[in-house]
Amino acid sequence: MQGFNMGRYVPPEHEGSTSANKLAGKHALGNRARKAKQGILTVRFEMPFPIWCSSCAKPTIIGQGVRFNAEKKKVGNYYSTPIFSFRMKHNVCGGWIEIRTDPKNTAYVVAEGAAKRDLGEDRVHEGEIQVRTEEERERLHNDAFAALEVKIDDRKRGVADRGRIEELQLVKGKDWEDPYAASMRLRRAFRVERKAREKNEAVTEGLKDRMSLGMELLEETEEDRRRAGFVDFGELDGEGAIVKARAKPLFSREVATSSVDARSSKKSKKDKAMQEAEERREKLRRELKENTRAAMDPFLSGQSAIAASVSIPRIKRKRSPEPVSNGVSLPLGGGARSESNKLLLVDYDSD
After folding, report:
1. Is 43 left (phi over 0), alpha (psi -120 to 50) or beta?
2. pTM higher than 0.90 for the full model?
3. CA distances from 246 to 121, 282, 305, 314 (A)
4. Side-chain half-sphere of 65: how many Cα atoms within 13 Å?
5. What is the mean pLDDT of each successive set of 10 residues along the chain, which is 351 residues long?
């Protein structure tokens, strides 16, 4: 019976005894194992470090992380650990590059066709101690001249480092001549920093409580203070500004004061007092217009506070003479006023 989703047909007489790959004479890895009889397997190899290609006409560097189809082959052993060789072809020049594993130093080494780029990782830096291997120690034990060279190098290095060591000891000794005073300085500096931290934490916690913030706030920096200084917050003129804003007409044309300024600037001979009088008249006219519009606005009729606060200028009229009835003058209050009010009303018929 054919297996689920196998994709290959196995005859019933060979089922269970062999596989489709053996019947077809193919390897399970396909084209990657075309040199399997030679012990070579094609794998995807990623360059562990940057290298210089030796086969290119111009100096060409192959960066770290570039991938190749490499031929993997076992070339030896380090004790029981196998040593593998990865041989790949550079597609730019067609040259072959071979990189091998180094189980002894747990690294990769370039064996052929390239050179590793010097990044300074293999150098012994200042202050580092180089540990000698067993082979190096054996060579120094057997070779007297090599041991003498190592001793001379160590003596020169000791003379060069002695001055720096003495300088550091002198500086450290000055700092700790009086341990009690040094401890007091350190504790005083720590106390000041601790109080500043506690103050900042209290301010931060208070801000978080007022703003109901559920997040951690960072400390204020000089850049934050500089940016906050650029912001200018304006102030409203209390209740009067709100009343004036509500009383302003919704669809009104703003009176352009620039035209007045332009006319006044053109007439340079005009007296300053006349100009100020004109500006006052213009301002008074604008305020009268806004106040009158606010008092007559039907949408603001329900707001008694605004209507009461807005003052409407009234026009004084000349009083009419008092009416005379049978030679007796009647006052303008009482019955005369009610009669005048009745005369002003319009009587509509039921029709």
Report:
1. beta
2. no
3. 76, 21, 11, 22
4. 0
5. 56 72 72 84 92 90 93 92 94 92 92 88 69 83 87 87 87 82 89 91 88 84 86 64 68 52 55 83 81 54 48 53 50 46 50 51
